[in-house]
Amino acid sequence: MKFYPTIGLETHAELMTESKLFCGCPNEFGGSENNHCCIGCSGFPGALPELNKKALELIIRAGFALDCEISRFTKWERKNYFYPDLPAAYQTSQMERPVCVGGGLEININGENKFKRLNRIHLEEDAGKLTHEGNKSYADYNRTGVPLIEIVTEPDFHSSEEVVAYVEKLRRILQFADICDGKMEQGSLRCDVNISLAPENSDKLGTRTEIKNLNSIKAIGRAVEAEITRQTEILESGGKIVQQTLKYNDLTGEITPMREKADAFDYRYMIDPDIKPVVLTEEELDEFRSRLPELPQARFERYKSYGISENDVKTLLSEKVISDFFDNAVKTYDSPKSIANFIVVELLGRVNRGEADMEKLPFSASDFAELQKYVDEGKVNRDIRKDILRDMLETGKTAVQICDEKNLWIKEDTGAVEAVIDKILAANPKAVEQYRNGEVKVFGFLMGQASKELKGSAAPATVKNILEGKLKNA
Amino acid sequence: MKKSLKQLRHLLDSKQVSAVELTQECLKRINDNPNSNAYITVTEDEALSNAKAAQEIIDSGEAKPLTGIPAAVKDNICTSGIKTTCGSKMLEEFTPFYDARVITQLKKQNYVLLGKTNMDEFAMGNSNRTSYFGSVPNPHDGERVAGGSSGGSASAVVSGACAYALGTDTRGSIRQPAAHCGITGLKPTYDLISRQGVAAFSGSLDTVGFLTNSAEDCAFLISALAYVCGTMWDALSDMKGIKIAVVKEFFPDDLDSSVKQAVMNTVTELEKAGAVVVETSVPTLEYAAAASFVISSAEGVTAMSRYDGVKYGLRGEGYTYDEQIRDSRTRGFGMEVKRRLMLGNYTLIGENYNEFFRKSLAIKQQLCREFDEVLDNADVIISPTTASTAFKTDEVINPAKLYSSAMYSVPANMTGLPCVSSPCNKAGMPVGVSVTGRKFDELRILQIADYIEKAVSV
Fold it and tell me: Are A172 and A259 contained in the same domain?
């Protein structure tokens, strides 16, 4: 018997707000333990929450980007459970009235477009972090109260490819809309995957398991594969799937149970008396919509309209930071094709070799664009573009500074080139003699000497013309 | 010698008395009366240094309404550097490092803090008998309760151990002890006074308010702290043009006859003074006590869940987290808190949520509609504050009966309306009459309460 997998996802994305969801503490990754905390996010008596308006805007933005319906009336509930990373022993979340309902996104699998539906997106607070040392455990509340959106899909997925394509696309949309930085390694984007298997052509779903906290796209794909294999083996040998929460170890590929979900825990959801329900007006929604950044699909169309090859467009759109860099460079020098080429061939080459980090470039997109502009205008030799770029990366100097200091400007003054060549010819009488005797191969040697002396400050064609002329006429 | 806050302001500003003298007088009354058990913590040193600082402000001519006037603060209102126990063993050693917003407001006026007053544990109770620090005897009859949960605040006001006191009121915790002790208690409009820094019991019902010697003092405090509807305080000489509603459900058969008589007598007096009486009905009132009990207990569950002994509070023993918090909560909470946690959890679990909690929220909404309708046709509602006068401290009362006895006071919490209780009898144990008004109409209800206090109870 063949089994058909059905998969649903819950993706948690930390929002890029400056402060936490219900207090003014900074929303920053890292920092020393319990340093981004106040009486609110540490659960002290009397603290009252105050909803972060920016977080509300960002979840609504996610709703716009993912074609959801935005609830005009939304409210928050307390989800009650005792756990040491949860200082108030309840998580403020949304049950009955999430901010976003429905929606979805289209993925492309082997050229076929498939629409994957969302169930809802709600706005909640993150929990703290626990570390264990021997028989001691430590709680760090820095992450407690960080705004989080939970994006819940319908069970619309049937392979790991679909799941991976969805998470990749979702991540890119969240990044490009400035909703979430998408740094999965820091936990700012993480997925729970629900998987069940049923015999092919069966109209019933099988018993599902949930794999929690997957924090890389590759791990998600591998975890789905591993769980499908595990469940298939159990079912094929006549066993039964136990409904449970699982943990996936990406190093070993092992799947192990986290806790039994036999008698589902009752979270005793209760409306939060301290957070007033939010009623959203059309004016507010219009205002939020006006601040929605350009999404990947729109950028894709725009870049293609510049005449950039589809491969290069995809490369530019692989990370928001690259795409933003490109857009900023084009603002300085309106030549998208040559800028795109310079980024893809030279800059990303260095990034891929680990010589540069797009997040921490020592120069601006505008400096970068200027260099390309000088090259295109014939002011700087194209062959040394990469060397100047390397210098810019290493020294943080601008192209202008480097060209000035190293005398790299192409000299329109042919007299200067002639003087250099005269000097070289005078210093190499033997080579000149050989050339005149028909040994034309020494031309290359003399050309090399001239280029070395000129350090790229003259166009090679100019050097060649003058050198040829002098040799013939001398 | 009970002076009004206005008189004290005048005495201080005209240098007839100093803030230090006033403070010393209050401290003397606290010390002379050790059996009152009104205070859990007396902050004698801070009080005197506060008073000195206040006097400098007064001398410089920069005094604000509450500068130099000594106050008592209920022990669930956080005070930086001063223990805030909530009347619980759980927080016996808890010293917050932050002030509640209302305390910050008071400090800006250079008030004088005398200490933190006794209360039912986490404000769960109406007799002050659930306090870990012992009950508070009624100043009029030591064998009877002062009421609760703001029992310590009420007792301190009666004995002159402060000029006024802050309290909190979730189901009547200011007005009921005020009524039992024969003083004035104001529960303002919901959230008029910030709850920030006030340990929560039931967030949708909790309200910070005052216990004072008179309605006029409440008006003085409201004006000093809340800046309500622009009107200045102005005592009324008669009740002409005032429409008062009498809601028949507030006078059930089991209402204590002395209470009923005193309240009806008050209505008659008001009518004689020119008020128009409108007899009306609030059919949903009979469910108010039960619904408010469900809501407050359910919200109490989540408000209490932060007390795990991990971050602060009584640290439990145990190897695992579960063992540790179980021990912390088992030893840290008293019986009444535990009872409410059990009941609150019960109303939230599974289908009970719809059966109890959701239904109670619907009753709350319906009560709001019905009270709004009554107040569309009347300026205020006159009702008893409690079912009876203060009961004996050793009297064993069925908890269900105790919970339902809040029927008279809870509607103001359920609707968020301002409500003041004033004494309304001359002899015997004090009886309180409640005046409930429209939202933010504090000064109006206080004018009527003031009239009652002067015409009826003196």
Answer: yes
How far is B110 from B133, CA to CA, in rounded Å? Answer: 29
Instruction: Supply the DSSP symbol for B36.
Output: G
Q: Are B20 and B68 in contact (CB under 8 A)?
A: no
CA B160-B164-B165 angle, to 5 degrees, is 110
In a domain, A117, yes or no: yes
Q: Is residue A444 part of a domain?
A: yes
Mean pLDDT computed over B14-30: 97
Pull the structure tokens for residue B235.
């005592």
For A81, which residue in chain B has the nearest alpha carbon?
Answer: B305
Best mutation target among A270, A275, A276 (most B Cβ atoms within 10 Å) is: A270
**How many other C-beta atoms can be found within 10 angstroms of the C-beta atom of residue A187?**
16
User: Which residues of chain A are within 8 Å of residue B312 when distances are taken between CB atoms?
Assistant: 44
- Please report the domains of chain B, with CATH numbers, ordered by start residue: 5-225 (3.90.1300.10)
Interface contact flag, B306 A43, Cβ < 8 Å: yes
Give the Cα separation of B300 and B202 in Å (integer).
5
DSSP A201-234: T-SS---EEEEEEE-SHHHHHHHHHHHHHHHHHH
Asked if residue A54 belongs to a domain, the reply is yes
User: Looking only at Cα atoms, what is the longest distance across chain B?
Assistant: 70
Q: How far is A278 from chain B (nearest CA, A)?
A: 16
pLDDT of A115 strictly over 80: yes
Indicate left, alpha or beta for B123 from its phi (over 0: left) and psi (-120 to 50: alpha): left
Query: Which of B197, B310, B348 shows the shortest C-beta gap to A84?
Result: B310
Cα–Cα distance between B432 and B58 in angstroms, integer?
36
Interhelix angle for B5-13 vs B19-32, to 10°? 130
**Structural domain count, chain A:** 3
Q: Which residue would you say has higher pLDDT here, A450 or B43?
A: B43
Residue A289 lies in a domain: no
Q: What does pTM read for this prediction?
A: 0.88
d(CA A197, CA B104): 60
Query: How many degrees, rounded to 5, is the angle at CA A337 between CA A336 and CA A339?
Result: 65
Residues in A closer than 8 angstroms to B361, CB to CB, are 271
CATH number at residue A434: 1.10.10.410
Tell me, what's the pLDDT at B458? 58
Sequence-separated (6 or more) residues with CB below 8 Å from residue A51:
A21, A22, A275, A278
Strand partners, A79: A91
The CA distance from B144 to B241, in Å, is 40
Residue A55 and residue A18 in one domain: yes
Q: Distance between CA B391 and CA B180 in Å, rounded?
A: 9
Q: Are residues A193 and A114 in the same domain?
A: yes
| Residue A410: predicted pLDDT | 78
Q: Which amino acid is at B252?
A: P
Can you tell me the distance from the alpha carbon of B324 to that of B82, in angstroms, rounded to the nearest whole number?
Answer: 27
For testing the chain A interface, which of B201, B295, B305 should be mutated: the one with the most A CBs within 10 Å? B305
Q: Which domain holds residue A423?
A: 414-473
- In whole angstroms, give the CA distance from residue B49 to residue B31: 18
Q: Complex ipTM, two decimals?
A: 0.94
Q: Is the dihedral of CA A164, A166, A169, A170 positive or negative?
A: negative
Q: Is the pLDDT confidence value at A400 over 60? A: yes
Helices B442-452 and B257-272: crossing angle in degrees, nearest 10, is 100
Closest approach of A205 to chain B, Cα-based (Å): 25
**Shared-domain flag, residues A230 and A371:** no
C-alpha distance from A47 to closest chain B C-alpha (Å):
5
| B75: chain A residues, CB-CB within 8 Å | none
Chains A, B: CB contacts within 8 A come to 88
* A61: enclosing H helix or E strand: helix A53-65
